[in-house]
Specification:
five-stranded parallel β-sheet, single chain, 6 helices, Rossmann fold, 47% helix, alpha/beta, 153 residues
Length: 153
């Protein structure tokens, strides 16, 4: 089985990765697929870019940067993963990746706080829970005093 783990470089996405790593280290036979989705360039960015290739290079560099800490966590755990960088609307891109990478599950961070229900109703995690053809596990940030989940790589 393959597990899709969306990585955007935030502590929340790294908490989800730590959870997925724990599942594998706990005996789950699974491969990890780390995905970074870059939003498409805005009209303003298209107008300001010196050439169209520049926008692609910028998006690729941003995606690689977001995945760096995740790569460190994998090295520490002695695990490998497939890394995928895509451009598009995050919800749709991740749903497509579930299919194209033949994933059997998704483990991702869930933003919350403030007006939780309002924030969840429009979020990428909500779309995946509603539309994913495979199970989606939502991981929240642990308490700050829980040393097991330090965000240091």
């Amino acid at each position: 089985m393959k597990i899709l783990v969306p990585i955007d470089g935030t502590a929340l996405s790294l908490a989800a990765l730590r959870h997925a790593i724990g599942l594998v280290q706990g005996g789950l036979r699974a491969e990890l697929v780390l995905a970074n989705v870059q939003e498409p360039a805005s009209l303003y960015e298209w107008l300001r870019a010196p050439d169209p290739d520049t926008l692609g290079h910028i998006a690729e560099a941003a995606g690689e940067h977001a995945l760096q800490t995740a790569e460190g966590l994998l090295r520490q755990a002695g695990l490998d993963a497939t890394e995928v960088l895509v451009t598009g609307e995050p919800s749709h891109a991740l749903l497509d990746l579930i299919e194209t990478e033949d994933c059997g599950a998704v483990v991702m961070g869930m933003r919350g706080g403030g007006g939780f229900l309002a924030a969840f109703s429009d979020s990428v995690s909500h779309v995946l829970v509603e539309r994913s053809p495979v199970p989606v596990t939502l991981v929240k940030l642990p308490d700050e005093d829980d040393a097991r989940f330090s965000t240091d790589a």
